[in-house]
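Handout, page 2. Input:
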Amino acid sequence: MFGDVVNSEMKWNDAGKIADECRMDIPKHFPNSVLNQHIVMPNQIHGIIELKDVANVGIQHFEPLPNQQNEFQKNNSPFYWFN
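Output:
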């Protein structure tokens, strides 16, 4: 998909080059992002993207609604979905 390993070295094809270029463009679209380590492998891409100056992200003020349960919680059987 993205290239081949030749003599223990990754050789990108056109798709691999495009994938790497797109990854390098992430900070242009998301200025609070910082690119760290990454690797383009023959059939997948792995990378670490750090987000800076992100305020109030997450569920810190989340509380479940009272008396609301999904079907799995209502039924105590661990095999409920398989019956």
